Amino acid sequence: MSTTASIQIPGRAVEASSGTARQASFSTSPTATFTSPSSSFPGSLANRQKQRQEKTLQPFETQNIKILLLENVNQSGRDILTGQGYQVEFHKSSLAEAELIEKIRDVHVIGIRSKTKLSEKVLKEAKNLLVIGCFCIGTNQVDLEFAASSGIAVFNSPFANSRSVAELVICEIITLARQLGDRSNEMHKGTWNKVSNKCWEIRGKTLGIVGYGHIGSQLSVLAEAMGMNVIYYDVVNLMALGTAHQVPTLEALLNQADFVTLHVPELPETKNLISAPQFEQMKEGSYLINASRGTVVDIPALINASRAGKIAGAALDVYPGEPGGNGDYFTNDLNGWEEELRSLKNIILTPHIGGSTEEAQRAIGVEVADALVRYINQGSTLASVNMPECNLRSLTLDESKHVRVIYIHKNVPGVLRKVNEVLMNFNVDKQITDSRGEVAYLMADVSDVQISDIKEIHDGLDGLSSRILVRVLY
């Protein structure tokens, strides 16, 4: 593949990548503020600190940064990105693959939720893409390895909607125990059916949590406050909250729990984690809740367990195949068993709404948008899910001739020596590097750099055989 580069006019950022020139321009990074009653005096400590803090990088024009936001990303995130001066294109739904490929060719940033699939096929067309923002917990919809090998960082929001999901599960536990879904449907049809048979209080019952992470641990506290006994299973040893306790195996949890709730990632190891053998291990008349990933539960096995009376009810918020948008799409054309599933008694079916609260979406919007801004403006990879985590302190007002060099490269021997040879005629104030698998990330702040020197730095790094992506911010 050919290699091209673009050096922009002063006040812009310089970038290049393998095969295609990547041009982008950047804005001033967010700054801290300091105020006090004496801050109006020029020589005050407050003013000296303010002068050191306010200037991070020389002002960058940002009108050329193009961002594509899909799936109704919350207004809080959109406001942060537009506030930086970026060009933001917003869509309420996901896009068909052909349209997505067409759109992604020109953008520097894409923001998605769970429906958009950024496969290798799609990402190969993203010639200018610098960073992906997943405005959700999961990142399994992105080919993380290919993104990293292309110099594309990925950020998500791993716990901003944890409370919303935990509250939904508590709601479903009570709804299943009291058969509220069936009673409500009957009333809507005009049928009065006042019964207490096989309707239970949840106080004193045992909740088994599979996966004791951000959501599982919050759920543990809520359930215990409502009088439930809590046990949990996780592949690692984790400290229990309250009086909950960890059990050694999934089988032990299934044998003891009245309610089983799943909070695990989508991995090869978790596919069909709950299938026919696991339903056999569950207590007679127990309940299953899945608000994690659709592939974790074998749905045909669940249908059989429900019909046989092995489980008394279930709540599903996620499915192996899900529609790309709202509408009458939850039919047999999707997975093949929808009609059978819908016919079951005491089954709660919701359309992947675990994190769909105003509070959660606002928090996710802010968290992911802030991460995108930090990466675009400063090169910080803190909290990236596919890049080494690197960060340098912000540049200051008295560092006006500083340049920040970002070098994403193959993790092979001898790279640091070659990078330092390129920078040997300049004063490197700060440098940090780290690797993750086959990809490494280097940041360096270089002082006393003239505009005429930037091309020399850029071209020197761009010519190295280990180069994946070069960015120079000044």
Automatic annotation (TrEMBL):
The organism's place on the tree of life at top rank: Eukaryota
InterPro entries: ACT-like_dom_sf, D-2-hydroxyacid_DH, D-isomer_2_OHA_DH_cat_dom, D-isomer_DH_CS, D-isomer_DH_CS1, D-isomer_DH_NAD-bd, NAD(P)-bd_dom_sf
GO biological process: L-serine biosynthetic process
Pathway assigned to this chain's UniProt record: Amino-acid biosynthesis; L-serine biosynthesis; L-serine from 3-phospho-D-glycerate: step 1/3
Pfam families (UniProt xref): 2-Hacid_dh (PF00389), 2-Hacid_dh_C (PF02826)
D-isomer specific 2-hydroxyacid dehydrogenase catalytic domain mapped to chain residues: 67-386
EC number annotated for this UniProt entry: 1.1.1.399, 1.1.1.95
Keywords linked to the UniProt accession: Amino-acid biosynthesis, NAD, Oxidoreductase, Phosphoprotein, Serine biosynthesis
Task of the protein: Catalyzes the reversible oxidation of 3-phospho-D-glycerate to 3-phosphonooxypyruvate, the first step of the phosphorylated L-serine biosynthesis pathway. Also catalyzes the reversible oxidation of 2-hydroxyglutarate to 2-oxoglutarate.
Family (UniProt): Belongs to the D-isomer specific 2-hydroxyacid dehydrogenase family.
Protein name: 2-oxoglutarate reductase
Organism the protein comes from: Microdochium bolleyi
